[in-house]
Design a protein that fits this description.
heterodimer, A: alpha+beta, 13 helices, 10 strands, 51% helix, elongated, B: alpha/beta, 6 helices, 31% helix, binds adenosine-5'-diphosphate, binds magnesium ion
């Protein structure tokens, strides 16, 4: 006869409610672990997806993700000419927070090197890669934009032509992919009035200079758009991404480019390490701590629940001892109930999590390893927390049944 | 100590507490109960009857004195001479004032558990439990939890449980206190029947003087002292 099961049957409502409570608690523990995994995964997702072998960034910076990096646009051509480089792409990347349909819209804008890169490598849920050099965007599904929806960024309106999945910035913002030219237009968008004032200022500087006095035609030129003035540099880009040719050694190419005085080079692994040690380090530690604390709290709560469940049974336990039940029968009863609660709670946590986690604002990733680890922890918690009840039950004297 | 006796006690003394909170609940209580003998123990409240019964039942540790059951010395002062838990399970049946059934087990399971604890297989235990409930006239309530049974029914299930392992000793502490006199008498007669049919030594603590004719021997207890009652007229 299974005493644990009989007792549970008798107190079914209370036991189920307790299991649900523990399940909810474990779901949060599970979710916290999933968010932790998601954070790490998201942080390195972009660099892994982009698949660049080397990142050429501003000298001595840990850019372009961990900090700001600025390199001249023409670095692209210098890098492309290095032996062993199969391809070089500009990297333009920045986060904007604008208003769209009355709601704040946070987009990590990433530029694609049109026409070499139309975003064919992006995993699409719907739509297509970019088909023209301007005014098209592939939006991540977390941005909540629909196919064909129009988004105003800066002076232009962009049409969503593709919906991607799992394209997230290291801080979890959805990525919007446009061409490099568009990305720069969005990044360096300046209001008309500011442009006019800058041209005036340019002309004024010219008039004050000796060169301007000698060649008045130059001052005429100052009123023209910056792009048509050869003395003004193109907008800078964040970094240049390098794909190393098959057969060429990544270290050699990196060494060659590193020798230049104006840039630093990071491999993909270094880039990932920089991300994990940099921007997400604190969140990661925070989540890890939370996860640990929640596990401790779950242990304490489960111990309390099992202890009170045992207290309610003290009379029955004394009776069992009176009719000669050995201690192991009583120990078994308490332990089995603890394990039943643990297993049931874990099951509820898992099933509920499947429904709830997809609605979390950040990605929750449940790996099999993490799930197995939590299962072991729950097992440990169940045993540990039943000890208090067992300790109390062992001290029950059979004659307490008579009082 | 001979094994013709179901129970022999020798100068049982129990002192609760110590110093100036000391209570002598029982002093030099010596009785013998033959196999098949039904003994009543009378006495006012606080006389020490429960103390005596639970000492014989190996539940309350003695201050001094000796208890032998079935001719075997089990308690020598505070020292057990056997594994008390196992011995209780096998040789002693208890019935108490309140029915003391396990609340989460059905009538049948309450009897069954006592059998299974002493090594019966579940099927055999169930069969025997049902036949015991039948013997006590509560077979039709076998699936009910104790909370759904009347006081009398609970007490019969408790008796069934006490008898489950065919104990050599049956101890009952005011078993009929919660019953009307008719049902009370039925339970007393049942004890006599069990004693006579199975050779069980039975001690029943009772206040109910109307059913005393059922007993073979009557003891009285007062202020911790047990003495044999004079034969009633
Ligand atoms: N656990 C105990 N601790 C201290 N005193 C007790 C305890 N149990 C019983 N007593 C005392 O022992 C005496 C006998 O009690 P008890 O055996 O219960 O008497 P009865 O069953 O005849 O009413 C009483 O004075 C009671 O107060
Ligand atoms: Mg009493």
């Amino acid at each position: 006869m299974n005493l644990a099961a009989k007792d549970i049957r008798h107190n079914l409502g209370r036991f189920s409610l307790t299991a649900v409570g523990i399940g909810l608690l474990l779901m949060i523990v599970m979710g916290m672990g999933g968010i932790y995994r998601g954070l790490i995964e998201d942080a390195t997702l972009l660099t892994d997806r982009i698949g660049a072998d080397l990142w050429v960034v501003q000298r001595d910076t840990r850019g372009p993700f961990a900090e700001v990096s600025r390199v001249p646009a023409n670095l692209l051509h210098r890098v492309a000419a290095v032996p062993g480089v199969a391809g070089a792409r500009e990297f333009v990347y920045h986060t904007v927070q604008r208003e769209h349909g009355g709601e704040p819209l946070r987009i990590a804008v990433l530029g694609l090197s049109w026409p070499a890169d139309k975003g064919q490598w992006v995993p699409l849920l719907a739509g297509r890669p970019l088909a023209q050099n301007h005014f098209e965007m592939i939006a991540d599904k977390t941005l909540g934009l629909r196919l064909g929806e129009r988004v105003r960024l800066g002076k232009e309106t962009y049409t969503v032509v593709g919906i991607s999945t799992n394209m997230l910035s290291s801080s979890g913002d959805g990525i919007g992919l446009v061409t490099v030219a568009d990305a720069q237009a969005i990044q360096f968008d300046v209001p008309g009035e500011a442009v006019r004032l800058e041209r005036e200022a340019r002309a004024a500087r010219g008039q004050r200079s000796e060169l301007g006095a000698r060649q008045p035609a130059l001052i005429e030129q100052a009123f023209q758009p910056a792009a048509s003035i050869s003395a003004i540099a193109r907008p800078q880009i964040s970094a240049v991404m390098v794909r190393v040719a098959p057969g060429a050694r990544v270290e050699e190419v990196a060494a060659t480019i590193s020798a230049w005085g104006d840039v630093s080079v990071h491999t993909r692994q270094e880039q990932n390490a920089l991300l994990l040690k940099g921007p997400v380090e604190k969140s990661r530690k925070q989540l890890g701590l939370f996860r640990f604390l929640l596990t401790v709290i779950a242990t304490v709560i489960m111990a309390l629940i099992l202890y009170t469940l045992t207290l309610d049974k003290l009379h029955a336990i004394a009776l069992l001892k009176l009719i000669g039940a050995p201690n192991r029968v009583i120990l078994g009863m308490i332990l089995q109930q603890a394990l039943a609660l643990g297993v049931l709670g874990y099951g509820i946590a898992y099933l509920l999590g499947q429904k709830v986690f997809p609605n979390f604002p950040r990605r929750v990733i449940l790996t099999n390893d993490d799930l197995a680890q939590l299962a072991l922890i729950v097992l440990g918690i169940s045993i540990l927390s039943s000890l208090l009840g067992i300790w109390r039950a062992m001290r029950v004297q059979p004659n307490e049944a008579l009082s | 100590m001979t094994d013709a006796f179901a129970i022999q006690t020798e100068k049982l003394t129990k002192i609760y507490g110590s110093g100036n909170t000391e209570v002598v609940a029982m002093r030099d209580a010596s009785i013998t109960v033959r196999r098949g003998e039904v003994v009543a123990l009378l006495g006012p409240s606080g006389a020490g009857k429960s103390t005596f019964l639970t000492s014989v039942g190996l539940i309350t540790p003695l201050t001094s004195g000796r208890v032998a059951i079935g001719g075997k010395l089990i308690l020598d002062g505070p020292y057990p001479r056997a594994n008390l838990q196992a011995f209780r399970r096998k040789h002693i049946g208890y019935v108490f004032q309140k029915s003391n059934l396990i609340p989460f087990l059905t009538a049948c399971e309450n009897v069954q558990i006592a059998l299974q604890l002493s090594g019966h297989g579940p099927r055999a235990a169930r069969r025997r439990a049902l036949s015991l409930l039948d013997y006590l006239g509560v077979a039709e309530r076998e699936r009910n939890l104790p909370s759904m049974l009347s006081g009398g029914q609970q007490q019969r299930v408790a008796v069934a449980r006490a008898l489950a392992n065919q104990p050599s000793v049956l101890l009952a502490d005011e078993p009929t206190a919660a019953l009307d006199s008719h049902r009370g008498r039925q339970v007393m007669e049942l004890f006599a029947k069990v004693a006579h049919e199975h050779g069980t030594g039975v001690i029943v603590v009772t206040h109910d003087h109307r059913a005393l004719d059922v007993f073979d021997t009557i003891y009285e207890m007062e202020d911790g002292i047990i003495r044999r009652a004079p034969p009633s007229p």
